[in-house]
Amino acid sequence: MSVKAIVGATLIDGSGKKPVSDSAVVVRGEKIEAVGKQGDVKVPEGAEVIDASGKWLLPGLIDLHVHLYSSGFVPVPTKGSELAYAGLVASNNLRTALQTGITTLRCVSDRQHIDLAMRDAVERRQIIGPRLLCAGVGICMTGGHGSGIPDTIHEVDGPWAVRKAVREEVKAGVDFIKLLSSHRTDDREFTYEEIEAGVDEAHAHGRKCAIHLANFVGTKMAAEAGVDTIEHGSFIDKETAEKMAYNKIVLVPTLWVKNHIPERTRKTRAEQAKTGIWNLTGRDLEQTEAWFNGCVEQLPQTMKLVMSKKVRIGAGTDNVFGDQMFATLPEEIEWLTKYGVGNMDAIESATRVGAEAIGVEKVLGTISAGKYADMIMVKEDPVKDITALKRVGWVMKGGDVIGLYPEWRRRPIQDPQDTR
Hints:
By secondary structure, this protein is α/β, with parallel strands linked by helices. The chain has two domains: 3-59 and 367-403, Urease, subunit C, domain 1, CATH 2.30.40.10; 61-357, Alpha-Beta Barrel (TIM Barrel). It has helices at 82-99, 114-123, 159-172, 192-204, 216-225, 238-246, 255-270, 282-308, 329-338, 343-349, 352-357; strands at residues 3-7, 10-11, 23-28, 31-37, 48-51, 56-59, 61-66, 102-107, 131-134, 138-140, 153-155, 176-180, 208-213, 229-232, 250-252, 375-378, 394-397, 400-401. Helix 3 (159-172) runs parallel beside helix 4 (192-204), helix 4 packs parallel to helix 5 (216-225) and helix 9 (329-338) packs across helix 10. It has a five-stranded mixed beta sheet, with no helix packed on it. A four-stranded mixed beta sheet has the order 4-3-1-5, with no helix packed on it. Helices cover 33% and strands 19% of the residues.
């Protein structure tokens, strides 16, 4: 079993504690064996020593909200099997994420269980990628959000139909359940009884339950039903925030995408005659533009409220755009700080809180003895400059140092893929 010692770095362990200078981390096989200051940690004889002097060592990042494949990733439809092509797109997205320092992804519904196949391929070392926790196929009401995406959603009505869909996903082998219950309106979709049934059935099978929600009525029902995470959550009132804190519900606000979409809609409107920007026209474009402008206007108030009520905040991206780098988590972390989250707290959102949100805090999320050796290294102090996380230069997953590929240099995210 290989033994490595990473010495000399300033350690930010993900727990929120003060950074430790001149640290030493001993890795034996896949796990972390010892952590502390040099001199206090014994480096085993014969260990491979990695000199990290002058650098900062952090836990691997966790993105709580991704889709491995979307038609948005393929603006020009492919010939042949779309599912086969989807697997290639997903595989490339996984490698890109790992290269960016994201060692764990939570996949919040993908077409025809592509996420489950990718999870198996990563675990069997057929492809390189982060650890995956998968929701499989999401669950919405008839005509609800997501219903227009083929093979990606169960459309069901009534508490028992929701329970049956949950059971089908458990049978398929998912790690958690994804409900969807609001689109770009102030109207509710699932009833409270339907949400409660989904949460109860998920928990009965030992799975956490995430829910796509944005409006006031939906977030209030979800908080009352005891979901585990609320995805997006643009509109949250005081009572809901207090209930979220009490029920230990994690908010995944997806700030990057909420700010990015209005830019896209404005660009689409300005260049309406051109193609390949975004497949929205007419009323859909107007509704989307109005809704996301409202989200952006509301966000400062929402983020201030949830922080004041001590709601835990996780980091997730929800990027489904082919002209953007798949791995936008460093951008999301920066957006958290723009909305008042401190740099250290933002780092925790993408490490410790992320692990807690998906129920793997005993093995991931912090650099601690006994946990998996998932770590990243940067050359600048991210506590002072959060954008340092856009310049990850070294990644370890499960004790293995990840090799360098062209994705390392693909910043800013709009830069084209280097195909040389």
